[in-house]
């Protein structure tokens, strides 16, 4: 059977398809964003298009990308940078071919969870920005890989990527003697989600074990407490160092950032703590943060913004070196939202007047009242946000940071429209710890382990991250 032109797709010869699968017509498209003969990682970006007449659930559909390993003992790791269907709904495992050829002895098999949904006739999955790399992070060779095509930088049909469903091959041709329905000589193995942590990687850990915002150790440890006036937020509000306090809780020290307001700019006091040095770029950032939906007293409803973020300054409108990665929780809405919402936003740049924003964001309209583990990872291909160990969103270029950044926590009032009462009220945002490790992409479990290690060793502060 051959799948021919549909929606601009060219014909391609396929391996024989059993009659039981004759009603399914799926095609695979491929492009690469890493076209060199060698690369830090291989980047096979894939799409699937339904060229048939019936809807097809993606669960049960698999793709195989075939490659030549760099050696018999070399292992590889899979990652998803971004996908329209959601990286959490895409799986990646490696297998060994039964009959190695000059251009292939391994394959990366891509599968889908039920959360990926179905493809209706004429639909495609959209981008699946996939990648894999050597477990030892050495440069890999891809010019001798069966499925690789360094000149294919826009999506086109991929005759050397196979697509299977229900034991039948619907698309593509495997390397000779390696029908995907034939079991491999060794079963596919799922690699660890992340490589081991380099024990010598520069890192910052702060347990916020201070007596107050005026404690000399706060400045000595590389923090600046904001004071005076200035954005973001309500013009005329004041940044109040005295409203950043520290207290013991469960054996750990907790930073409390209080925001107070009486519904006027002059009666609004906000808080911000920022690293003094701009020296954080690629790596893993993490903090345990307690958001609060309601004030400690007085009327509720103010448009409060409770944050953990990293950023580079905007030196001019549309500054190409500006960057920012945000966790912003709005417990009472704001910016046109009517109730609680969490944003994670990756910024490339912006123009303040007239407003022009170049960013990408994910959002969740639900309450995040209480403690949450926030994490973001940045490498040369993607920014990934996690909340409580689960992927919240992923962004790629052009949103990756170009220059070193600050780490920041702030708690501020977006506007005075949420609650106009003159009764004073206060909101709290609390932070248990902050952690950063340079040039290492850690899983949430690895972050938890590193923090537990610092605490079991009695380490309340360390900073070995070199200055920029």
From TrEMBL:
Question: Any keyword Hydrolase?
Answer: yes
Q: So which residues are the signal peptide here?
A: 1-21
Alphabetical keyword list = Hydrolase, Signal
Q: Which SUPFAM superfamilies match?
A: Carbohydrate-binding domain, Concanavalin A-like lectins/glucanases
Q: From the Swiss-Prot or TrEMBL record, what is one GO molecular function term?
A: hydrolase activity
Q: Where in the sequence does UniProt note compositional bias of the Pro residues kind?
A: 181-195
Q: Where is the CBM3 domain?
A: 22-176
Domain of life according to the entry? Bacteria
Region annotation (Disordered) ranges: 174-195
State whether keyword Hydrolase applies.
yes
Mind telling me which Pfam families this protein's record contains?
A: CBM_3
Q: Which residues form the GH16 domain?
A: 135-442
**What InterPro entries does the database record attribute to this sequence?**
Beta-glucanase-like, CBM2/CBM3_carb-bd_dom_sf, CBM3, CBM3_sf, ConA-like_dom_sf
Name it.
Answer: Hydrolase
Instruction: Write down the species.
Output: Kitasatospora herbaricolor
Write the lineage as a comma-separated list. Answer: Bacteria, Bacillati, Actinomycetota, Actinomycetes, Kitasatosporales
């Amino acid at each position: 059977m051959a799948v021919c032109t549909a929606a601009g797709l060219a014909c391609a010869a396929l391996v024989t398809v059993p009659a039981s699968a004759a009603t399914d017509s799926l095609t695979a498209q491929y492009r690469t964003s890493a076209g060199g003969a060698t690369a830090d990682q291989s980047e096979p970006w894939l799409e699937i298009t339904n060229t048939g007449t019936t809807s097809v659930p993606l669960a049960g559909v698999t793709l195989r990308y075939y490659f030549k390993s760099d050696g018999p003992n070399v292992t590889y790791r899979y990652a998803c940078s971004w996908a329209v269907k959601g990286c959490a709904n895409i799986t990646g495992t490696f297998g060994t071919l039964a009959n190695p050829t000059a251009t292939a002895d391994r394959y990366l098999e891509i599968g889908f969870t039920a959360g990926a949904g179905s493809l209706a006739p004429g639909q495609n999955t959209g981008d699946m920005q996939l990648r894999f790399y050597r477990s030892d992070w050495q440069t890999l060779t891809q010019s001798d890989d069966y499925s690789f095509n360094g000149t294919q930088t826009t999506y086109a049909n991929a005759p050397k990527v196979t697509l299977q469903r229900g034991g039948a091959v619907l698309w593509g041709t495997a390397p000779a003697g390696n029908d995907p329905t034939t079991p491999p000589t060794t079963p596919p193995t799922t690699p660890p989600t992340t490589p081991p942590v380099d024990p010598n990687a520069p890192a910052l850990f702060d347990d916020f074990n201070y007596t107050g915002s005026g404690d000399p150790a706060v400045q000595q440890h590389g923090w600046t407490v904001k004071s005076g006036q200035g954005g973001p937020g309500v013009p005329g509000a004041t940044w109040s160092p005295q409203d950043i306090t520290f207290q013991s809780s469960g054996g750990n020290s907790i930073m409390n950032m209080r925001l107070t307001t009486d519904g006027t700019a002059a009666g609004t006091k906000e808080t911000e703590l920022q690293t003094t040095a701009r020296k954080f770029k690629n790596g893993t950032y993490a903090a345990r943060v307690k958001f609060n939906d309601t004030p400690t007293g007085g009327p509720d409803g103010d448009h409060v913004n409770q944050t953990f973020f990293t950023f580079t300054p905007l030196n001019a409108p549309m500054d190409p070196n500006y960057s920012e990665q945000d966790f912003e929780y709005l417990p009472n809405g704001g910016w046109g939202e009517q109730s609680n919402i969490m944003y994670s936003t990756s910024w490339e740049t912006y123009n303040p007047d007239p407003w022009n924003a170049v960013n990408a964001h994910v959002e969740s309209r639900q309450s995040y009242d209480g403690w949450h583990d926030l994490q973001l990872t940045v490498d040369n291909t993607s920014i990934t946000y996690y909340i409580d160990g689960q992927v919240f969103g992923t962004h790629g270029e052009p949103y990756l940071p170009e220059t070193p950044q600050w780490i920041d926590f702030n708690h501020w009032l977006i506007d005075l429209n949420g609650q106009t009462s003159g009764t004073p009220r206060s909101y709290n945002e609390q932070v248990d710890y902050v952690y950063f490790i340079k040039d290492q992409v850690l899983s949430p479990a690895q972050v938890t382990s590193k923090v537990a290690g610092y605490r079991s060793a009695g380490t309340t502060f360390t900073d070995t991250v070199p200055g920029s």
